[in-house]
Structures are given as structure tokens and as C-alpha cells.
Amino acid sequence: MRDRRSHPRFVLGRMRGCKLHAAREVIVEETDQAGLVVISDLHLPVEEGVTLDVVGGGHAGTVDATVVESSAVVCDGTIGYRLRLQRR
């Protein structure tokens, strides 16, 4: 039953720039006008751009930031990562 079709069933389009959005929970340790410090279970490289949807304390908002520092920490008996984020 090979080669029975005279035309392809589908055609892959060209990829133009794409982004992957993966929701992760973080613990916010500190915040100020310049940025935030969060604890995450996911390591992110320095200069990686992130978007945080922050909800808590009666407030909700979105923060666009860049990772400026990343270090491993132990949090509740597991390895986590302290990320210092600078607002964009």
C-alpha cells in the first residue's frame, strides 16, 4: 500500500520564531522596585528572560524579568534554585 496517494496528506509549515510557555510555581523571597528573588525547582541560566504571573496579598500582576543570578539551595530537604530577577 505504499505510494498510493498522489498528494501528501500534510505539509509542515516553516517555523518563524516561537516560544515555549511552561508554568512553574516559585516561592517569592524578596521583592523591591528593581526586581525579585524567588526559589524555583527549575534552574534557569543567567540572562534568560522570564514572565511571572504574581498573585498574593490581594494583588495580582505580571512581571517581565531577566535572571541576573542563579544559585543552588536546599529548600525543605530538596535542591532548589535561588533566582535573582531584574525587572525589564
Could you explain how this protein is built, in words?
The protein has 88 residues and is mainly β. The chain has a domain at 27-87. Helix content is 0%, strand content 52%. It contains no helices and 5 strands. The protein has strands spanning 27-31, 35-40, 49-56, 59-75, 78-87. The chain has a 5-stranded antiparallel beta sheet, with no helix packed on it. A hairpin with a 2-residue loop joins strand 3 (49-56) and strand 4 (59-75). The radius of gyration is 20 Å and the shape is elongated. The model has no long low-confidence stretch (mean pLDDT 85).
Brief summary of the model shown:
The protein has strands at 27-31, 35-40, 49-56, 59-75, 78-87.
